[in-house]
Request: fold
Amino acid sequence: MTTVELTLQTNATNFERLLMTVWTGNELSAIAESDDLHIAPFREDGETYGTPTWIWSVQVDDALYVRAYNGQDSSWYQAAVRENAGRIEAAGMTKEVIFEPVDGPINNRIDDAYREKYVGSSYLSAMISDRARSATVKVIPRNTRT
Reply:
């Protein structure tokens, strides 16, 4: 990669981060308390949304996290990490978002949040498995105002 290409890539990343916002308390609470999150990362063209997929979501501190039941082989997960953006629908809201892959110790706290929210579900063990943990994504609201 040339210096110019690296600079352009860095500037694009910085610009995208400037467009990030934070969840309002009401938005995050409503999404976290609901069980109806549908995720639709962009397709390869970067403009068309993929088919919405129903997934579980949890809140840790002031952040929203999701995981792919089928791990990194999941179609929505692959699109989310490739395109880094898309849309979610939850709690009666539609939000443009950025997807950021997650790794490291935060996964333990995310596991705890899944255990608390989905206690008693037969799917819980799969959602806190190594396979699902490897496909954890932070969902960040995107400022779409111009």
Q: What stands out?
A: The beta strands are 38-41, 53-54, 57-60, 63-67, 85-90, 93-101, 136-141. The two ends are 31 Å apart (CA to CA). The first strand starts at residue 38 and ends at 41.
